[in-house]
Amino acid sequence: MTIASDSAVALPFDNSYARLPEHFYARLQPQPVSAPELIASNRPLAEYLGIDPHWLESADGIATIAGNHFPQGAEPIATAYAGHQFGGWNPQLGDGRALLIGELLASDGARFDLQLKGSGPTPWSRGGDGRSPLGPVLREYLVSEAMATLGVPTTRALAAVSTGEQVWREQSEPGAILARVASSHIRFGTFQYFAGRGDTAALELLVKHVSARHFPEIAGNENLALAMFEAVLERVAKLVAKWQLFGFIHGVMNTDNMLLCGETIDYGPCAFMEQFDINTVFSSIDRQGRYAYGAQPGIAHWNLSCLVQTLLPLLDPQAETAVQLAQAALDRFPVVFQDAYNSGMRQKLGLQDSRDGDDELFADLLAMMTKQELDFTLCFRRLTELAAPADSTLAVTELLQLGDECEPWLQRWQQRQREDSASEQQSEQMMLAANPVFIPRNHLIAEVIHAAQHNADLKPFQQLLAALARPFSYSPELVHFATPARPEQAVQQTFCGT
Ligand code: AMP
Ligand code: MG
After folding, report:
1. What is the pLDDT of residues 453-477, one digit of tens each?
2. Ligand 1 site, residue 93, Cβ cutoff 6 A
3. What is each CA distance from 352 to 238, 322, 349, 380, in whole angstroms?
4. Which among 63, 128, 140, 178 is least buried, having the fewest CB atoms inside 10 angstroms?
C-alpha cells in the first residue's frame, strides 16, 4: 500500500522541532496498515486543535491516524533520546514505535505535538516491531483522558484506530495506533542523549527551544539553562504532588518518561491505587519497588538531578560554580513538592488556612487508611459526603463506611474545619472539586480491554470513558464504576505497554 497525499485536508502544521539540526531525529514515514477502523475520537480536543472532528472521523482522518495517508505539512520524525531505565544508563533509546508527525497551534495559540504511537519501526526500534497492541492503546486513552479531566497535566488522546493487523506479544493480539497530543515530547532523556555525546552545542539549542516553547516568561534571562531548569523543577514537583493526591502510580518513571513540559507521559504499567498503602507497586518489572507510590517524589527529585547534570556546562564556565548552582536549584524540590501537596491535601479536606499541626492531621489520616485498609478514593469521597450531608448525589456510603476506629481522627478533622476560615459551603465546594468518585480502576480497564479484544465490543470502553468524563458527579446507576475490585477481580500486576 502506498501513502496518499491529500492537499484538500491541511492540518495547519508548524514543525519547530523538525527545524532543529538533523541529528536530533530521523525523518521517516509511518508504515501503512491493512484495514484501519476508528476506535474513538476526542471531538473537543480536535476542535481545540483546529481539527474538524468530522474530518477526523472520516475515511481520510482515519487513514491519517493509521499512517496510510500523508497530510499536507506533516514532517514525520522519530526523535533521539537516551535515559536511565530503573536507574541503569541507556545512551540510546529514541522513539522506537512512535512518530511525531507535526506540531499544531491550538485556538489559544498553545503549541502541541501530534504523535502516532504504534506506527511502525524506526531506526530506534532495537528489534521491536514498532507496533502497539489494542490493550495498551485503550488503557492509555482512558487513563490519560481521566487525568486530563482531573486537572493533572498529561499527554492527551486525540484518536485511536485499530489496524486490522495482528501483533505478536506473548500471543497474537489485535494491533492499534494512538494519536497522542503533548505540549512537547522533549524528555529528560533528550538532554541526556546529547550530554552523553558531549554535544554542548545541541544542549544549548535544546535549552533555547524548550525555554521559548514552554517557559516564555524566562525569555532574556541571563542564565537561561538555570532558569529553564528551575521552571521544569517547579512543574514536575507540582505534577508529582497531583499524582500523590489522586493515588496515581506511574510505574515507570525512567528519565525517558519524564517530559520537560511537566505533563504525565507513558501510561504503560500505571495504575490508580485502591486500598491505601504507601508501598503499593503494580508494575510486573518493578521487583524492588523503585517506583512504588511513596517513592515517586524522591524519584522525581533524582530524575531532576540527572537533568541538571546535563546542563552543567551551560550553567557556568567554572565547574565548581556550575555544581553549586545546580545543587541550590535542585534543593528547591522538597519545598515546592510539599507546598503543592499540602495545599492539595487541604483542599481535599475542605480547609482554607494553613495551620500548625496540619502535617500530622494528614499523616494520621493516611495511617488510618492503611490500618483500616481503606480505598483511597472512596475514603476522601466519604469525607466529602460527611462535609456535605445535604447533597444526595454523593452516596458512596454504601461502598465505604468509616468505622468507630476512625472517630478520633474524624473529630479532630471536624474541629479543625470549624476553626478554619472557610465557610461550610466553601469547604463543601472545595472537597467536591478535589475528590473524584470515578477513577480508572484497574479491574475496570481490564474488563474493557477484555471485551474489546475477545468480543470486538467497544461499548464497555465507551461507557467507562463517559463515566470518567464526569469524575466528580455521582449517580447510582454508575455504581459499578465507583466500586473497588473484589478480591478475585483485583489486578495485581500491570505491564509495560509494549
Ligand atoms: P517505554 O517502555 O514505553 O518507555 O519504551 C522504552 C523504549 O522502548 C522506547 O525507546 C520505545 O520506543 C521502545 N519500544 C517499546 N516498545 C517497542 C516496540 N514494540 N517496538 C519498537 N520499540 C519499542
Ligand atoms: Mg516511554
Report:
1. 999 999 999 999 999 999 999 988 9
2. yes
3. 19, 40, 9, 17
4. 128
